[in-house]
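Module 6 notes. Inverse folding takes a fixed backbone as the condition and produces residue identities as the prediction. Think of it as a translation problem where the source language is geometry and the target language is the twenty amino acids. Below is one complete input and output pair. Work through it position by position during the lab.
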């Protein structure tokens, strides 16, 4: 997997004067079955989240409210993506180091994940991630 596999996905948006509606269907709008949903909120100013990679997990990261940046790193290349629309999500493939920062006040980050939580799926040390990315 490389950084080019991570893309912003435009989600369906039904506009209505009473308020807009967006929906997400696993294996239709995202390239995986959704098995877990979690969200980050009340992130203090200047704080960072993430700082890890997953061995097998696929994710879609969405700014439900406010904005934040996702910094992706495949061990060779880095890319910063600014998320600020609740109808756009960033698909993050496995074996991609990610860091979230630049949270606006009141922002909410929702993550759709392909699997339940599994600590063994994580690289929490950047050096271990880089070692795993080296060709054998």
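Target side of the pair, the amino acids:
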């Amino acid at each position: 997997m490389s950084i080019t596999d991570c893309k912003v996905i435009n989600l369906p948006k039904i506009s209505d004067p009473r308020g807009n509606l967006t929906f997400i269907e696993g294996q239709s709008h995202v390239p995986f079955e959704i098995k877990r949903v979690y969200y980050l909120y009340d992130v203090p100013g200047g704080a960072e989240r993430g700082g890890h990679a997953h061995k097998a997990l696929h994710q879609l990261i969405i700014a439900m409210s406010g904005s934040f940046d996702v910094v992706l790193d495949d061990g060779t290349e880095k890319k910063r993506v600014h998320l600020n629309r609740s109808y756009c999500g960033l698909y993050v493939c496995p074996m991609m180091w990610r860091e979230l920062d630049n949270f606006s006040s009141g922002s909410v980050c929702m993550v759709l994940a392909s699997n339940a939580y599994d600590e063994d799926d994580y690289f929490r040390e950047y050096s271990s991630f880089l070692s795993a990315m080296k060709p054998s």
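Reference fact for the lab report: The two ends are 15 Å apart (CA to CA).
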